[in-house]
Amino acid sequence: MFRRFIEDRRGNFAIATAVAIVPILGALALAIDYSEMTRQRAMALNALDAAGIAAARFYVAGGSEKDTIAYAKDFFQANMNGIDTSAANFQLTLPSSETGGGLLTIDASYSFKPFFFDAFSSLVSRDQTALQITAETRVRLKNTLEVALVLDNSGSMTDNGSGSGKKRIDLLKTAAKQLVDTLAGQAAQIKQVDKPVQFSVVPFAGSVNVGTQYATASWMDVDGRSPVHHENFNWSTMPSNKQVSLSGGIYYKVGSGWGSAAGQKVTRFSLFNDMQRVTGQVWTSNWVQKCGWTWSGYKCNWVDEGSYSYTYGSYASWQGCVEMRPHPYNLDASAPSSSKPETLIVPMFAPDETDSTTNGTAYTNYWADGTTGTDIVRQKYMPKYFEPNNTSAAGSGKGPNTSCTTAPITRLTDVTSVNGKNAVNGAIDAMVANGATTVPQGIVWGWKTLTSTEPFADGRPESEKGNDKVLIVLTDGANTYYTPGSLGYGDGAGNKSIYSAYGYAGVNQSGQSKSRIFMGTSVSSSTYSNSNYTTAMTQQMNAICEKAKSSNLVVMTVALDLSSSKADELGQINALKSCASDSKFRKAPDGSAAKLFWNTTGGALEQTFKEIADELSNLRIVS
């Protein structure tokens, strides 16, 4: 019987199954716990990412370090779908307060509680991290903004805005100040970073005004060494005893006729000082007895041989406007350098044009010619500037300041302070519409206000992370530069244009075969027409925009009341759209990134600037 029991095979399968079921169930339990552990790890990563973004927004909005940590931890727990992480090791590290950007880092870890394998305690005792779920997230804060408002102040801005009974310039002031107030309100809550939001204001028309306080700045061409500084002057016309001679790249007064002024530099700045007007005269009598034979006999008479003595005053002072630099420096915001005179900033000085009306009245005629001859000879005759005129003082934007019509630039200013915000809003209120439209110069100077280098050097370093430099460019028209004939004036001197930021279109850039308005473009440099000037300037504008974007500037553009049915305005619409950067947040209907371009009307301008404010608010943080 015992042998039969031993040899009986009928229960072997059950025994084998009983023996095998332990590792089979163990493997299944391991698979379940491993699957759950993997699920929780993925959930923790997602929850931590969400907590990081939420904490960053909370912190940027002004949350304290303690409150930010608590907020992040609660946010993390809320996204763990019921899994208890109250005992988790949770660490939040905030970025340094010295810069506008930095990493907000959150690390979290907690022990995974298996469903089936408490018996694996021996394994855990050997490696306490075996069942630890760890996750880390990093959020780069971009909580500082530097914004240049590049705003059209041309004459057409006095027209009523479409869909509104108000002037465009007034609508612009309201919308721009609303933008400043919105971002200033947000920035005021940011306590962790100095100057979180700054604005500059760059009004532009036919030129840009940098401010008279910079007449002696190192970046101005105070010595007259730029190749365009003397392009409208013919110093060979000076007399032998009052010469103006070039030495070492600088013009000096040479000769006995200069008296104590001999040896002084001659620049556009000095010309402003040398132009004197008669402000008063006093007759001093000198009675002399004159005797002689007359038809009635020998007689003596007293004759007053006295003379007038004159008092003089300034005719005009430089009002702050500057010319475009020679190509290629007109297309970027590179810092001026005394070692490269062509990079220096040249003050505007509109030459006095001819008194003669033989070829029609000249556009800029404010001083006595002092000579005769052709219109160009009269225009370039330099002794006239050193002879006092009996005239009244030149008004704003008149005389040698012709085409200087805008208020000065306002440098980057922190709008989190009351004084700073008031200064920016005051600069916006001070804008006056008058003159042509030179968008390229406006963009270049807007860019200059944002750089960390001269002329202003107010911007944060270009390499600093967490800071956005933004250009907001608004115009209500195409770029304009005018021939004298298009304005009803004569051009006997062959200037081909009125004088403005590019100088005369008929005067070639020094050493070049083209004038500055044509340099760097593909348009005909021998076609002197308003439309050709517009095309050339728009090409330069496009080049500047591309360089600005390649330098990591965010470019936002606004076309105000421009019509696609007008060829020049359609061209400007397309150019402004091309100029704009891509949005990081909005999508176009085709799914591509939307352009930061708005084609708006006067009536919708305020809403447009609200959308711009939303876009700028979003720039403050990216994950």
Automatic annotation (TrEMBL):
UniProt xrefs under CDD domains: vWFA (cd00198)
Spans through the membrane: 12-32
Keyword Transmembrane helix: yes
Keyword match Lipoprotein: no
Residues annotated as domain Putative Flp pilus-assembly TadG-like N-terminal: 11-57
Pfam families membership: Tad
Keywords: Membrane, Transmembrane, Transmembrane helix
Protein name, entry field: Pilus assembly protein
